[in-house]
Specification:
three-stranded parallel sheet, single chain, alpha/beta, seven-stranded parallel sheet, 286 residues
Length: 286
């Protein structure tokens, strides 16, 4: 079953007075997902309050951000799902995710939980290990990103003032600005951005210097999230061609009309997500 995520969310959130939105924490790619998600909430008028795991209470309606966190490398979404069980939420939606591992947690989830998967192997995995949850396939959340709206919203004085007051933004600002200035296309217009973390298939740690997404990220949604996303877009937009194993660099580059040379991550996430996205795009065209 493949769904349009905004239509699905409108139905899921029907008659809700509010929902707690907890983004997937992580790098600048996760920031782009969160920006696109908040934009979608606003477009379809879903009432959400951004928060974190400590804000989950008895009877909450919880929306957990999309991404690639429910895999053996990470435990953030695992902890969020366990917190939802422990605090007896009313219902919980996990936005389009890659899912591998954590079968013990998946087996505990009941009909209050809905998991959207952004690739077919994840969908099959959830069907096998979480038989009681509602599940469906949906494109990665970054496809909901409205670049022009983001440019308008980040031009305001309100946004600029919020950045000045954001301690998380200021803490990483120097290295972020240095990275966005240093990581540029070569003389042929080719931009290279490669992973330097546990998902890289290359053990060469010198890649860290070209790993733009590593230099900032998100712990919870704030105006800084939108600024990071805009900075990534500006960096990619300078190029004519992008070579990357960073999923959201490749997706944003494609959305901006750039030529993309795609490399795989350590467990096949990149090609799996792209495969579903292209299938859905072809179905829309037909």
């Amino acid at each position: 079953m493949v769904v349009n995520v905004s239509n699905f969310l409108e139905h899921w959130a029907k008659n809700l007075s509010n929902a707690l939105y907890i983004p997937n924490p992580g790098n600048a790619g996760d920031a782009a997902i969160a920006t696109a998600t908040i934009q979608m909430f606003r477009r379809i008028c879903v009432p959400v309050v951004p928060g974190c795991i400590d804000d989950i209470t008895d009877g909450s309606n919880v929306i957990i951000g999309g991404g690639g966190n429910l895999v053996p490398y990470y435990k953030d979404v695992r902890k969020l799902l366990l917190a939802c069980l422990a605090r007896n939420v009313k219902k919980c939606l996990l936005l389009p995710h890659t899912v591998r591992g954590h079968a013990d947690v998946l087996a505990r989830l009941d009909t209050r939980f809905t998991i959207l998967c952004r690739d077919k192997p994840s969908y099959e995995y959830v069907k096998k290990h979480a038989p009681h949850v509602h599940t469906a396939l949906a494109r990665d959340m970054v496809f909901e990103l409205d670049v022009e709206e983001l440019k308008r919203s980040t031009k305001t004085w309100r946004h600029k003032l919020a950045l000045l007051q954001d301690a998380y933004w200021r803490t990483n600002l120097f290295r972020w600005r240095r990275a966005t200035l240093r990581i540029r296309p070569d003389s042929h217009g080719t931009l290279r951005i490669f992973r330097s973390d546990v998902e890289s298939v290359d053990s060469d740690r010198t890649r860290r210097k070209s790993d733009l997404m590593h230099f900032h990220g998100i712990n919870r949604y704030s105006p800084a999230t939108d600024q990071i996303t805009l900075d990534v877009i500006k960096c990619i937009n300078r190029a004519e061609r992008v070579i990357t194993d960073r999923l959201h660099v490749s997706l944003i580059a494609a959305m901006l009309g750039k030529k993309v040379c795609l490399l795989e991550n350590s467990y096949g996430k990149v090609s799996d997500v792209w495969e579903l996205a292209m299938e859905m795009e072809l179905n829309l065209i037909e």
